[in-house]
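for the recovery benchmark. tokens below, seq after
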């Protein structure tokens, strides 16, 4: 049986960077993980339907549509065998409030062994967002970002209650990417 690890964190915390470096370092030790981006699976369907042009438009779609896209992404990902990392969000900030990234029907499809929360100081995240021109990040202040990170922890706890998975917090601090990667490697080996 492969290991299923869900990796979450607010936009701009550096999830994808941590994941990519971890996967390549583990491959050098012959530990193989497939990296699946949940948002990309949703985007493939949404762009195929012609309803969005960029991945950052999806969180503005109506709630029912986002749920439908979540479901199709989960069903697709559930078919994957072996060790899998799923790059996604504990909660998605939508105009209508926080949307669970893994509502019960998604969670039951995926049944992760571990949910990882990648976190760091809110100041650092705000600086990283300002430096990233490739994405349309929502304008968000310090307090809102604190709330989002807090909310993600609360959601992760509920995911643990529903599945029996463990929850691991990994700090991706400025200039300490290697430390985050080491911690992630430890739980993936
Ligand atoms: P990302 O590239 O990880 O920031 O994801 C891009 C977009 O995909 C997010 O802004 C969300 O709209 C969507 N997305 C990713 N994961 C989920 C999820 N588990 N549930 C709902 N939407 C998601
Ligand atoms: Mg990412």
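predicted aa per position
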């Amino acid at each position: 049986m492969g290991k299923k690890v869900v990796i979450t964190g607010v936009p701009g915390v550096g999830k994808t960077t941590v994941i990519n470096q971890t996967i390549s370092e583990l491959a050098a030790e012959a530990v193989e993980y497939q990296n699946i981006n949940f948002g990309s699976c949703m985007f493939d369907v949404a762009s195929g339907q012609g309803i969005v042009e960029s991945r950052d438009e999806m969180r503005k779609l109506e709630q029912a549509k986002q749920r439908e896209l979540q479901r199709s992404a989960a069903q697709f990902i559930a078919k994957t065998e072996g060790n899998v990392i799923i790059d996604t969000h504990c909660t998605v900030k939508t105009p209508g409030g926080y949307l669970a990234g893994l509502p019960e029907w998604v969670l039951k499809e995926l049944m992760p062994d571990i949910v990882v929360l990648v976190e760091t100081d809110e100041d650092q995240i705000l600086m990283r967002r300002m430096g990233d021109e490739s994405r349309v990040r929502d304008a968000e202040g310090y307090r809102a970002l604190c709330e989002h990170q807090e909310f993600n922890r609360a959601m992760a706890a509920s995911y643990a209650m529903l599945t029996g998975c463990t929850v691991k917090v990994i700090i991706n601090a400025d200039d300490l990417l290697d430390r985050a990667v080491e911690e992630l490697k430890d739980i993936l080996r």
